[in-house]
Amino acid sequence: MRHRLILALGAILLAGKAQAADMMRMAVTTSFHNSGLSDVLLPAIREDLGLEVQLLVVGTGQALKLGQAGDVDAILVHSRAAEEAFVAEGHGTHRREIMYNDFVLIGPDDDPAGLSQAADVLQGLRRIAGAEATFVSRGDLSGTHNRELDLWAAADLEPEGFGRWYNAVGAGMGAALNTASGMGAYILSDRASWLNFGNKGNLVMLHSGDPFLFNQYAYLPVNPDRHRHVKHDLALRLEHWMTGERARDLINGHMIDGQMLFVFNATDPG
Amino acid sequence: MVDLWQGLSQAFWLVITADETLVEIALRSLRITLSALVLACLIALPLAAFLAVRRFRYRRFVIAVLNALMGLPPVVVGLVVYILLSRSGPLGALGLLFTPTAMIIAQMIIIVPLIASIAHQSLRDLWHDYHDLLISMNVTQTQKMMTLLWDARRALLTAALAGFGRGIGEVGAIMIVGGNIDNVTRVLTTAIALETGKGQFSLALALGFVLIALALAVNLAIHGLSRTEREGRW
Amino acid sequence: MVSAVFPLKVSGALTRHKGKVLVGPVDLELDGAGTCVVLGPNGSGKTTLLRMLHGIARLHGGTINWACGTEAARNAQAFVFQQPVMLRRSVLDNLIYPLRLRGVPRHEARQKAGEWAARAGLTGMLEREATVLSGGERQKLALARALMGDPALVFLDEPSASLDGRATREIEEILTTSSAAGTRFILATHDMGQARRLASRVIFLLAGKVHESGPAEAFFAGPITPEARAFLKGDIVE
User: Fold this and answer.
1) Is the distance from CB of A83 to CB of A222 less than 8 angstroms?
2) pTM for the full predicted model
């Protein structure tokens, strides 16, 4: 009896899964993963390139950190200033724009701040602040959080001076949306995360389509001069594919509820 | 309440249809935690026996440290292991970050103090019983430790199961060092965290129920096997 | 090996606990023939004397010299405690434990355990957990386990203190048979009848010191000291 237990144990422990020949790691943002686009792109990449891309789904801040430490081979994020600094400091070889999506402002359906009547997003934010309506902020230095801070600044408002209506939860998009749903709060989200979010409660989308809210994604291979083990050749192969026709068709064709999520805008390498 | 019910029924269907992804994730959870458990026992049990039979100057201190480490937040363990295994960390050359091995290491660190501490309690009591006899028989240190470990095996099983419970339900550390990569390092707990993040509560709950069922099954299986041995006291 | 343990020479042996002398200084010579009974009132230090001689109570002064040397003597001895320590294993596994420690093959040890179980009246209990045995069964098992390793000398601390007449008789039968076969015993008891039945030599202990020591017949016929005389009569001696 005991021998059988040990055998079963051994079988479980040893039953590892064979890895594909080529494997690379890419850190991506939650918004990219939550959109479901990765589920479309990864199988196609495996098919076309024989390349297994392992995704680490994190915030932009952590993705940049992973690249800095050499723990991933490439990153796909959306925070332009941070990306340019990343390349300038020599952590990445270059920055390649791939596609963009947009942010949307979410809030309770009774819209106490009157956000839906605002002329543009900046006026909308001023209305929320003026009404001191409950607002949930990611507060995790992610791309979305950085964009939110930029927007407040553009609206001449300073989040540090906000009262208790402003809640920085320090969490990922999903957790922040869960919090907003529970509190009936306003929140800035990327469109994909919002559409795929399953716990909407009384939240609705109140503002979108503003050019201020466009969100550029860029691909940055990690610098092999800094980290010799980095699979730079694979990262370049992936970049070539990500900027090619198959990727364009898949990205532009990816929809949720009939809404297009991403717009492919990669340019030919110059 | 609706979510709970949906979770239960979704769990039921996932299990009944032997959903391929679910089976894979569940087996990976089991594999990682059992590996960590076996390794942790190999360290913790001899350590506990050593602490029970040997008197040395810093013994009390070591025991106090073990007890304190039981309350170690997994996230901290995860962070430390992450920093050690990161490519820019001291053990970066091993390339272990974001692999199941890294998760096994983190879980092992979390459960060793727990197992050692519980095991030490029961071994100490047993040593109190056995002390005169074994000293009289002039047994070696190794024989002492082996005798205690063998005769306390049921209590040690409880210690190991406590370790298993803590390991299989752990999410903070393995999320950090494993990275929750689909098909590679995604286990039940990190999948639950992921689905919760997507607001997919019923799926998250379903996975939670599967996790509980798995833990229960392992406990029953091991207790069942140990009880076939003989009459005796627990 | 068996004959080499004795003679035993003890001089000035002393053991303390928290600064207080429990036993000693003890001067003693034993050639070890037959069974030596340690007599004395409660608290006179019988248990401590046995433990000191066996080497499991710390010696704080004096010397204990076995003919074959301390380490060899220790391995040729066994100790049966007043509250026998049962390993949390089956009766069989308890019996073979001392042999397995010495690397005796399992089948060989089992065969011998079968013989000893029969002599101790434990046949049919071999598969039971030792911890569920009755007091008498425990005492018999502890004795059989001690004798399994063919020791030259066995210490027995109050072997029948809490047993009924039948169990006591069974134990004494084993002792008599083994003694006839050459095993020596040093036995502490305050059961005067048991002492008279088993002793070939008596050590009378009082307040941690050897008060009187000599051949059993002479001691029981006419103790020299007034305290020993009073003890034999059944008076309270302190």
Assistant:
1) no
2) 0.84
